[in-house]
Amino acid sequence: MFLSPGFFSLAAYALIGALISIQPAHADVSRCYGTVAKGRLEGGVKLPTDGANFSAYSKLAVAAGRTYVHAKVADVIVASYATLQARTPGVHYVYGETGWAAGGSFKPHRTHQNGLSVDFFVPVRDAQGRSGPLPTSPLTRFGYDLEFDAEARHGEHRIDFPALAEHLYALHHAARAQGVGIARVIFDTAYLPALFATPRGPSLRQHLPFMKGKPWVRHDEHYHVDFALACRPDDRGPASGRTRTG
Q1: Helix 161-177 vs helix 71-87: crossing angle, to nearest 10
Q2: What confidence tens digit (pLDDT) does each residue in 36-92 have?
Q3: CA distance 136 to 149
Q4: pTM, to two decimals
């Protein structure tokens, strides 16, 4: 979840990331501590930058170390994209912010602290009906400042609700296969009727815990997923999380 005011440039984060020691990627075992809003992570795994049908929202963000998750969450995400390659051929998916390799405070987000929170940008189609990645340039704060209208459109792009529903459906089943739950999904409530009207809609309504209230920032260009795993208490206090340089 994003707060536009006070958003630091990813170039600055990249420089900081180069100066700070983080956990190595591809750790065999991850351990989460605390909660998504106050926690940390050991053995964080960096998500793949891209694949046959998906990509990260920013290579600069990847270089800055902002795309780490719990190893089981990484397995769920990669498995879901593999499933979607067969179910939704030709659709391109984009994931967004996740968290630091060691978790902890992840500004400007309020959550994303223990490796279980992931943002996904909405799949879109252009005026010709072609699927492609949502533009996530630095000019739009890497996509987080994009605004979709009441018709779920932004410029020539419109939200591909069937593809979005297939992704959530694939995430749900991949999570179950890995022994992982989904604790919360945040998406603009104005768009939920369109999402639930898709073929996968009834299943999503039954099995996924969508946030019913109004989130602190609008979630129209992306949807936020908190995964559920048993995490240990975070007993390190306010200093827990990412090592700081000053």
Answers
A1: 130
A2: 999 999 999 999 999 999 999 998 889 999 999 999 999 999 999 999 999 999 999
A3: 17
A4: 0.81
**DSSP letter string over 3-63?**
-STTPPPHHHHHHHHHHS--PPSS-S--EEEE-SSSEEEES-EEPPSB-SSEEES-HHHHH
Q: Which helix (H) or strand (E) holds 222?
A: strand 222-228
Contacts of 11 (CB under 8 A, 6+ apart): 60
Q: What percent of the chain clears pLDDT 90, i.e. is strictly above it? A: 62
The CB density around residue 107, as the number of other CB atoms within 10 Å, is: 12
Cβ(97)–Cβ(69) below 8 Å: no
CA 101 from chain centre, in angstroms, equals: 15
Tokens of 235: 């007993």
57 within 8 A of 50, measured Cβ to Cβ: no
- Specify the pLDDT at position 218: 61
**Distances in whole angstroms, Cα of residue 48 to Cα of each of 13, 21, 152, 209, 243:** 19, 20, 29, 27, 23
In the structure, how many helices (H) and strands (E) does the chain have? 6, 13
Contact between residue 146 and residue 222 where contact means Cβ atoms under 8 Å apart: no
